[in-house]
Design goal:
alpha/beta; Rossmann fold; 6-stranded mixed beta sheet; 6-stranded antiparallel beta sheet; single chain
């Protein structure tokens, strides 16, 4: 419940403090006195957008602060605590607007965001004014109104949880399908290129080995000649190196027979002899084994051409070819694993989709029950509001038998409020048939029906008397009184038939002080209420008759009993 509202330097309001009570709080006053400005200040506490134009002329900042009694609202206190704000039996919300652009918000003295205000205030107060008319007329909001009235929000939360799970799976599948499609396109190329490499089957350093073999074949004549000459020089000729080395060995032996001071070991000479002899034999065998094979040379050239084509395609070397082969093999494995993952997700999707369908049908069934109840409740309310032939209905346009495309964030239901305002008229969408006065009564009827189930503690009615008067206005007053049995109601009105039902009546006035407009709010006592009701009845010229009429109206309203 809203206990106190303090406003400073907001629009034409210099400084204002208003205390509200339980039941029906009436705010009246002359046109332009600032009644709706008070509602605008409350809207700021709900998280509405602030502009510097809201700051009173010559002031640097504007401040709006409200004190709510939340002692009996444990769910709200738990929510506030979960958001990290201090908790007590009172909730204080403050909003500061500055010309510097550094606007600030506070919850129980701690800095808060506009989102924090919005989340907290949705359980505190609801403003039913011109904006509320727009909300009621917007068919997109009808499903939310019905769910709140019918107690379907818990079923809807269960559905939303499984629906979100389903959507996450669908998103994963779509991403994998896109990825798989792009990779599959590459995979076709990879399969072709990989087969080409596999068919060639290159070996490590094969190109270098073939190049060396080709070099030998191409230089066969030179190599053969050099090997033969080298053999002859070492071993084959009469004066070959080995023959001369034998002579050297003999001469050294003769020297050492005479002079032992020659320090040349015979073993070294013998070792050199063996080494040269082995070299000579290797040269001989090497030369014998050399032969020119034209077919082999052609085969080498063809193989090298094949390897070089691979190298040019895949990085210029056999190592690059091997790296590309590994890369393509891994890519093809990934495509294969993506297909497996898609199959797994598709199986999971089918299971979750069936659960979504079941929850959606259950939610739709509960909404059907709620629709029948709200139709009966609103019909009773609008009948009492002097619309005896009007009929309210909820029109369902479902695709319950459809596939996954029929699921939505709020279920499979597409519904809209319809109204037949007069007997014999076909029911049409609410925003197509309701006149100003009818719309005000329809909104009040919905509010009264919803007030028995809604969780909000305070309701503000602004312009609820638009387009009505006389006996209908009195009925509206009674309905507002009925709503106030379940909620604190704050109502701005110009009609005495409504004002006389107030438990608390506040009068808004303005005056000029030192060239500046000052707005004030005063709570009226019993005599002042009579004066104000008289003013609302007769205007400036109040007579004894209008005052007596005002007394009668107040007495009648006081004796009214809420059924």
């Amino acid at each position: 419940m809203l206990n106190e509202l303090s406003i400073k330097n907001f629009a034409i309001i210099d400084e204002l403090h208003v205390s509200f009570g339980e039941g029906l709080n009436i705010i009246s006053g002359e046109t332009g006195a600032g009644k709706s400005i008070i509602i605008g200040a409350v809207s700021l506490l709900l998280g509405d957008r602030a502009t510097t134009e809201m700051i009173r002329t010559q002031a640097e900042t504007a401040t709006v602060e409200a004190v709510f009694d939340v002692a009996a609202n444990k769910p709200l206190r738990d929510k506030v605590e979960a958001m990290g704000f201090p908790v007590s039996e009172e909730l204080i919300i403050r909003r500061v607007i500055s010309h510097s652009g550094k606007n600030r918000a506070f919850i129980n003295g701690q800095a808060a965001t506009l989102m924090n205000l919005s989340v907290v205030s949705e359980s505190l107060i609801n403003i039913c004014g011109q904006h509320e008319h727009q909300v009621i007329l917007d068919a997109e909001n009808h499903i939310d109104i019905l769910d709140e009235f019918g107690g379907c929000l818990s079923d809807r939360a269960v559905y939303e949880e499984i629906y979100n799970q389903y959507q996450q799976i669908r998103t994963q599948i779509e991403k994998l399908q896109d990825l798989n499609k792009s990779r599959e396109e590459k995979a076709d190329l990879y399969r072709f290129q990989l087969k080409e490499i596999q068919d060639v089957n290159p070996q490590q350093a094969e190109d270098e080995a073939l190049a060396d073999e080709k070099k030998v074949l191409v230089n066969f004549q030179k190599l053969s000649g050099w090997a033969g000459n080298a053999f002859d020089l070492l071993y084959g000729e009469k004066d070959s190196a080995i023959v001369k080395l034998k002579e050297v060995q003999h001469q050294i032996k003769e020297i050492k027979k005479i002079d032992s001071n020659l320090k040349i070991a015979e073993e070294d000479i013998e070792s050199s002899f063996v080494t040269l002899q082995e070299a000579a034999l290797q040269l001989r065998d090497y030369g014998k084994n050399l032969f020119f094979d034209s077919e082999r040379l052609a085969a080498i050239d063809e193989r090298l051409d094949t390897l070089n084509r691979l190298k040019r395609k895949h990085g210029g070397s056999l190592e690059a070819v091997f790296g590309k082969r590994r890369e393509m093999e891994e890519a093809l494995k990934t495509v294969s694993s993506l297909e497996e993952e898609l199959e797994r997700l598709s199986r999971e999707e089918e299971k979750v989709k069936e659960t979504v369908r079941q929850k959606a049908l259950l939610l739709s069934e509960r909404r059907g029950q709620a629709a029948r109840k709200i139709q009966d409740a609103v019909d009773k309310e609008i009948y009492a509001l002097n619309m005896p032939h009007a009929a309210f209905s909820v029109s369902f346009k479902n695709d319950a038998g459809g596939g996954a495309e029929s699921f939505g964030p709020k279920g499979i239901d597409n519904l809209e409020f319809y109204l037949s305002a007069n007997k014999g008229e076909e029911a049409r969408p609410l925003n197509k048939v309701a006149s100003g006065g009818e719309l005000s009564r329809i909104i009040l009827a919905l509010k009264n029906a919803l007030s028995r189930t809604g969780s909000v503690s305070s309701i503000v009615f602004d312009e609820v008397d638009n387009g009505i008067g006389g006996a209908v206005a009195e009925i509206v007053g009674r309905k507002l009184k009925a709503v106030s049995a379940n909620h604190q109601v704050i109502c701005i009105t110009h009609l005495p038939q409504i004002a006389c039902f107030g438990d608390k009546h506040m009068f808004v006035s303005k005056k000029i002080v030192k060239g500046r407009t000052i707005t004030s709010v005063n709570e009226l006592d019993n005599e002042q209420k009579i004066e104000e009701i008289s003013r609302m009845l007769g205007g400036v010229n109040m007579t004894r008759t209008t005052k007596e009429h005002a007394r009668e109206m107040l007495a009648s309203a006081k004796s009214y009993k809420i059924n």
